From TrEMBL:
This is Ketoreductase (KR) domain-containing protein. Coiled coil: none annotated. Residues 1-21 are annotated as: Disordered. Gene3D superfamilies: NAD(P)-binding Rossmann-like Domain (3.40.50.720). The lineage of its organism: Eukaryota, Fungi, Dikarya, Ascomycota, Pezizomycotina. Residues 8-17 have a biased composition (Basic and acidic residues).
Amino acid sequence: MLDSNAEELEHVKKQAEKWSGSSKASWAAIHCDLSKRDDIKTAVNTVKENFDGKLDLLINNAFPTTLSMSEDRRMEAEGDAIEQEWDVKIAIGLTAP
């Protein structure tokens, strides 16, 4: 489990420890900012060291955004800004090699 927010990572780690209970599953919580290559390299090395260099499951759920929704902000009100941001994120996250 990777997260750039150390506080949230610790919170989720505690929840995962409760949920995993006596499970034989192995996992790790690693502080990592996916926009920083050095953080990524460190995370990969940690995985290599702790899991014999292999993963059985990987869920990539990282998707940075500069806009956020709240009760005061509606997607319709943001219009083109949200669409432009979406296009950029898709181009970077899915299209780029």
